[in-house]
Each structure stands twice: as structure tokens, then as C-alpha cells.
Specification:
The chain is 30% helix and 25% strand. It starts with a strand and ends with a helix.
Length: 107
Amino acid sequence: MLQVNQLTVEVAGRAVVADASFSLAPGDKVGLVGRNGAGKTSLLRVLAGEEAPVSGRVSRKGAMGYLRQDPRRLGPEAEGTALARIVSGRGLDEAATRLEKLRAQLE
């Protein structure tokens, strides 16, 4: 569960979100749309607890995650992009490797 009360988020001294209040329940799905520079990423960082809001309160119960715009490496062994991690998580990377081996055998 995520509850936001009177949230204000600023970017470079400019308010991009002012006095926002809303709540999300488990299973809710939300889309966040706006032009470049509107503050979407800054808002998500505040909601995730990575940055502090200028004012207001964010309450999180349970786990919350989002796919970062600029994915961080998890360690020296971590390689690839966010897409590679998603593909790997679904086992598609192994399927692609098997297909490549079969293609090489056919040649």
C-alpha cells in the first residue's frame, strides 16, 4: 500500500508536484505520463524513498519497486541492460543460446 499526503516535489527549485494526495492499494496499476522534464522520475524517486520530498508525507507498507530510467549495476558481475535482465528472468536468454547453437550446427 502506498499513501501520499500533501506531497510537494521540486526539481532545481521548481515545484513539479504540489500538494498531491493519493493512495494505491496492492494490485493497483498506474501509468505516469508527461513531457520530458515534467518531473516523473523525480516523483518516482520520492515515492520509492530514494529522495526526500520538499513537504508532505509518503507512507509505504509492503514492497515497492520500479524499473529505473538509468539502471544501476548490482555488482562487478552484473552485466547488460534492463532488457537483458528481463529476458534472462523469463529464460529467453537460454532459449536464444540454444537456438544459436542449433543454427551453427545446421550450417
